[in-house]
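hi! just following up on the protien thing from before. the input was this:
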Amino acid sequence: MISDERLAEIAESGDPWLDEAQDIAKELLALRKAFSEPVGTIEATCDYVTDADWLQDIDSGEYLIIRKPTDSTT
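and the predicted 3d structure came back as:
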C-alpha cells in the first residue's frame, strides 16, 4: 500500500501531467483521515450514539460513524 507520505508528495507535485494523480492522492488522504477519526458509534440493538473517545472496546454489535470528507473537513 502506498504511504501517506508518498500520497502527500504526489498531491503537492507541481507537474501538470499529474493533475488527475494529484486529485486521486488528495481524495485518498481525505478518506484515510475520515476512517481514522470516527465521530462515534451506534449499537445495533439500541438507538444511541456515543462519543468517539469511547472507541477502545468496539463490540461486534456496534458500528463506527464516519464523517464524509468534504473540502471544509480536509
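Strands lie at 40-43, 49-51, 62-65.
Helices lie at 4-11, 19-36.
cheers
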